[in-house]
Design goal:
Elements: E1 7-9, E2 12-14, E3 21-25, E4 32-37, H1 41-58, H2 63-79, H3 81-92, H4 96-116, E5 123-125, E6 132-140, E7 143-147, H5 155-167, E8 170-174, H6 180-192, E9 200-203, H7 207-216, E10 220-226, H8 229-241, E11 245-249, E12 254-258, H9 264-276, E13 286-292, H10 296-308, H11 328-343, E14 347-350, E15 354-355, E16 361-362, E17 365-368, E18 385-391, H12 394-401, E19 409-413, H13 417-426, E20 431-434, E21 453-454, H14 459-464, E22 467-475
Parallel strand pairs: 7-8, 7-10, 8-9, 10-11, 12-13, 12-19, 13-18, 17-18, 19-20
Antiparallel strand pairs: 1-2, 3-4, 5-6, 6-22, 11-21, 14-17, 15-16
Helix pairs in contact: 2-4, 2-5, 2-6, 3-4, 3-6, 4-5, 7-8, 9-10
The protein binds nicotinamide-adenine-dinucleotide.
Length: 477
């Protein structure tokens, strides 16, 4: 059912040199289902050496040859979707349908970047002298160190791996120790698609030890991290110290504004479904619901009825619509957010408590009239908590939306084109989705501003993060 996860270094699946491993727990049952190898410094160095020789080979494959291998990896992911999705649900907790969707979207991401590989165009700049050619070419940046979290064990990783490989870079991926199996299966698809040894390498272990070693290593040229803002700032400062290029995909605290002229039924259905997807452990989850006072009652009635119909349980069981939180830390964090909000005067309209004492289940929770100084109004809840407050004017909604230092995703619902256009411009976030949920497609840019990080992980922008620009000026000899 769940196989023990090894490191993948230089084209071989290997145990950690020190023999250490980390247990993997099923958050629905609290049973240990397997383990993942925990790399020592010697393994990290072996991965760098493998990535160095992998880079020398991979960068010299034509873009078409790289694309062919990547397309084969995408096919393998699709063929293996059932087994991979089961492993993901067992290790992370999300329901099987979400695990399947994540795996299939990852195949689309790989294919999209495979198609971009031959399109890393440079340009020719007209020269001041007839015998001179001025060329701008794009080259792979070098060996990439990528660090990815547990909430989307495949998708957070594949966006980095596929973009880097398409650009001609080799990659050392430090995957999520708490949900390593599905991430390793994604890497296995590249291995089985005949990516040359060292093009992709996979490590698990003590995150801080691996990141510090890799970021300061002279052969690593690019750092990409997805995770919390606090860790992101630490890694970005280390990268700055060593002059490494960086992409940072960090936390969010998305405002979701429902104006009085909105289709409230559609707004509630779409926002609620996206609030409780993966039990709320999603960086773009709608979090601060700002509802116009004239539609507040209708919104709450529909939202409460949606919540009442959520079926909580083991994600492997048919009919479950929300699984457990991914680990025990999240239960403690979410409980802390709820009690602090209540102390500050918030009202619990639904949920608010842990369910049972086996598995990390927490009730879908709606807090209303939450004051801005409650902790949960300022820190990413990363759990099934919706914060619902009323507003009266457009300016009031924008002020609250932009109050925080986060700036990842934001949502708005209105039937007025004028309001839609105005809100799209007024909100300080990397992504704004209006009247539908349209984020995180392979072909569209995904990323944040302010404390939510910098750089893009989808769309044509994403491959640029893995390319250097080189200027060559050439006169006839
Ligand atoms: P955390 O902040 O310790 O870890 C977040 C991620 O960063 C994990 O994957 C972890 O392995 C990694 N990490 C931590 N220290 C690291 C280091 N020094 N070097 C490299 N990687 C490191 O805590 P957590 O309990 O796993 O999650 C807590 C918070 O992180 C959540 O509340 C959420 O706000 C945020 N988070 C965000 C995302 C996202 O998609 N942006 C994903 C997971 C967690």
């Amino acid at each position: 059912m769940y196989r023990d996860v090894l490191l993948y270094i230089g084209g071989k699946w290997v145990s950690a040199s020190g023999g250490k491993s980390i247990p993997v727990t099923n958050p629905a049952t609290e049973e240990i289902i397997g383990s993942c190898a925990s790399a020592e410094t010697a393994d990290i160095d072996a991965a760098v050496a493998a990535a160095e020789s992998g880079f020398a080979v991979w960068r010299n494959f034509s873009p078409q040859k790289r694309a062919k291998i990547m397309r084969r990896a995408a096919e393998l992911l699709r063929e293996r979707v059932e087994a991979i999705a089961r492993a993901m649900t067992m290790e992370e907790g999300k329901v099987l349908a979400e695990s399947r969707a994540e795996t299939l979207v990852a195949a689309d991401v790989i294919e999209w970047f495979a198609e971009e590989a031959p399109r890393t165009y440079g340009r020719v700049i007209p020269a001041r002298a007839m015998e001179v050619y001025q060329l701008v070419i794009k080259e792979p940046v070098g060996i990439v160190a990528a660090f990815t979290p547990w909430n989307f064990p495949i998708n957070q990783a594949v966006r980095k791996v596929a973009a880097a490989l398409a650009a001609g870079c080799s990659v050392i991926l430090k995957g999520p120790e708490e949900a390593p199996g599905s991430c390793a299966e994604m890497v296995r698809c590249f291995a089985d698609a005949d990516a040359p040894p060292g093009a992709v390498n996979l490590l698990f272990g003590v995150p801080a030890r691996i990141s510090e070693h890799l970021i300061s290593h002279r052969l690593i040229r690019k750092i990409s991290f997805t995770g919390s803002t606090a860790v992101g700032k630490h890694l970005a400062s280390l990268a700055g110290l060593h002059m490494k290029r960086v992409t940072m995909e960090l936390g969010g605290h998305a405002p979701a504004i429902v104006f009085e002229d909105a289709d409230v039924d559609a707004a509630t259905r779409i926002l609620a479904a996206n609030k409780f997807r993966n039990a709320g452990q999603v960086c773009v989850a709608p979090t601060r619901f700002l509802i116009h006072e004239n539609v507040y009652e209708e919104f709450m009635e529909r939202f409460l009825s949606f919540v009442a119909n959520i079926r909580i349980g083991d994600g492997l069981v048919a009919g479950t619509t929300m699984g457990p939180l991914a680990n025990e830390r999240r239960i403690a964090a979410v409980e802390g957010f709820v009690s602090d909000a209540v102390e500050h005067g918030a009202h619990i309209a639904a949920g608010g408590q842990r369910i049972g004492n086996k598995g990390y289940f927490f009730q879908p929770t709606l807090l209303t009239d939450v004051p801005p100084d409650a902790k949960v109004m300022n820190e990413e809840p990363f759990g099934p908590i919706a914060l619902v407050n009323r507003f009266t004017t457009f300016g009031e909604a924008v002020k609250e939306a932009n109050r925080l230092n986060y700036g990842l995703a934001s949502y708005a619902y209105t039937r007025s084109t004028k309001t839609a256009t105005a809100i799209g411009r007024a909100i300080e976030s990397g992504m704004v989705s209006i009247n539908h949920h349209g984020l995180a497609l392979p072909e569209t840019p995904f990323g944040g501003v302010k404390d939510s990080g910098y750089g893009w992980e989808g769309g044509a922008e994403a491959i640029d993060a893995y390319l250097n620009t080189k200027f060559i000026t050439q006169a006839s000899g």
